[in-house]
């Protein structure tokens, strides 16, 4: 597919070499860049068109979608609003505005935009899918399911509807049904990350961390910065008793999304588990109070000191540690004298 995109770009470049202000070629080139995920280049193409023709609706909407994909949501919303001021029923601008509000988690507002599209075109699949997503996020799951079913009546292989239904049944822990739906989506698009994430989660919940980890590996090979994939991989290796490896994945997720609660919780639980284990060990060997326990204590303390992350979690100063060792040695000497 990428090769076809580049071939099309080359054809439009030939046109633009002859006529650098060819509006259709610039718009088509921008649309291809959107499909490729090259959003900055898409933005540049649409801006060229708008500079030539400020009223070009296709370029205005294209610019809105480029801004949306660059996470510039306020600017995108303003751009779509510019289109709607002239044409308040413009489908692309209505759907674009709804998409922005979905990202901002303003689901009720998003539904209003999708409904405006569906009033005119009741079978508009994109608006139906996005409305179902918004409904699911406002706990209107049955209404969302009805829409997914309607979409699948129109298009039985619709990937988004299959995944939407898969998510619905996953929430109900009906793993068999959910798995069938995700696999159906993957038959149409073998590299669909949302379907792969669903399958990976099912395997993890069913106690199959190795299989789950393999699916997360595939997700990360497609998108190395996928936060859900990194967190899922971390969870799967925890189940395989690979805590250090899990910590690495949680850290990578937090580099991309520093406020991600799932990654923060996973990391904190792992660190606290290490701390609790070490402190329990210290408590046990302190109570025993033999020569062997002193050696053990020193070994444990050394391990803690070597681990900077662990040390920050333990409220014991160097002086307290030395005092503890000294007391234990004195106790040991007294025990020997009594013997």
Name the features.
mainly alpha, globular, 19 helices, single chain, Serine Threonine Protein Phosphatase 5, Tetratricopeptide repeat, 339 residues
How would you describe this protein?
- The chain is mostly helical.
- Among the domains are: 157-258, Serine Threonine Protein Phosphatase 5, Tetratricopeptide repeat; 275-338, no CATH class.
- The protein has 19 helices and no strands.
- The relative contact order is 0.04.
Gap from first CA to last CA:
83 Å
Radius of gyration: 29 Å
Mean pLDDT score, rounded? 84
Major sheet details: none
Report strand %.
under 5%
Uncertain ranges = 280-298, 313-317
Characterize the overall form. Answer: globular
Task: Please identify, by name, the CATH architecture of one domain.
Answer: Alpha Horseshoe
Question: What do we call the CATH topology of one domain?
Answer: Serine Threonine Protein Phosphatase 5, Tetratricopeptide repeat
Separate helix tally: 19
Q: Kindly report the name of the CATH homologous superfamily of one domain.
A: Tetratricopeptide repeat domain
| Name of the CATH first level of one domain | Mainly Alpha
Order of helix and strand elements from N to C terminus: HHHHHHHHHHHHHHHHHHH
Give the beta-strand count: 0
Structural class: mainly alpha
Helix content: over 70%
């Amino acid at each position: 597919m990428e090769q076809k995109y580049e071939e099309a770009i080359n054809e439009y470049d030939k046109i633009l070499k002859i006529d650098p202000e060819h509006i259709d070629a610039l718009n088509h080139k921008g649309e291809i860049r959107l499909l490729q995920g090259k959003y900055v280049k898409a933005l540049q193409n649409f801006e060229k068109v708008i500079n030539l023709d400020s009223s070009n609706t296709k370029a205005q909407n294209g610019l809105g979608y480029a801004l949306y994909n660059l996470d510039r949501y306020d600017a995108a919303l303003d751009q779509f609003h510019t289109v709607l001021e002239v044409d308040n029923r413009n489908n692309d601008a209505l759907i674009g505005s709804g998409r922005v509000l979905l990202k901002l988690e303003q689901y009720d507002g998003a539904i209003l935009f999708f409904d405006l599209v569906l009033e005119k075109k009741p079978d508009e699949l994109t608006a139906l899918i996005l409305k179902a997503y918004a409904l699911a996020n406002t706990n209107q799951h049955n209404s969302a399911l009805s829409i997914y079913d309607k979409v699948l009546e129109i298009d039985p292989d619709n990937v988004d509807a299959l995944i939407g239904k898969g998510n619905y049944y996953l929430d109900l822990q009906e793993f068999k049904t959910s798995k069938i739906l995700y696999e159906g989506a993957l038959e149409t698009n073998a590299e669909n990350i949302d379907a792969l994430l669903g399958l990976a989660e099912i395997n993890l919940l069913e106690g199959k961390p190795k299989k789950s980890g393999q699916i997360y590996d595939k997700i990360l090979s497609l998108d190395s910065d996928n936060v859900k994939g990194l967190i899922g991989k971390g969870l799967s290796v925890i189940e395989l008793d690979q805590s250090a490896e899990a910590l690495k994945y949680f850290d990578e997720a937090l580099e991309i999304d520093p406020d991600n609660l799932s990654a923060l919780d996973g990391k904190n639980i792992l660190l606290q588990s290490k701390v609790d284990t070490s402190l329990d060990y210290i408590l046990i060997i302190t109570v025993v109070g033999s020569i062997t326990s002193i050696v053990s204590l020193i070994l444990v303390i050394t391990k803690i000191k070597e681990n900077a992350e662990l040390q920050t979690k333990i409220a014991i100063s160097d002086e307290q540690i030395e005092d503890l060792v000294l007391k234990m040695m004195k106790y040991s000497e007294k025990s020997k004298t009594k013997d």
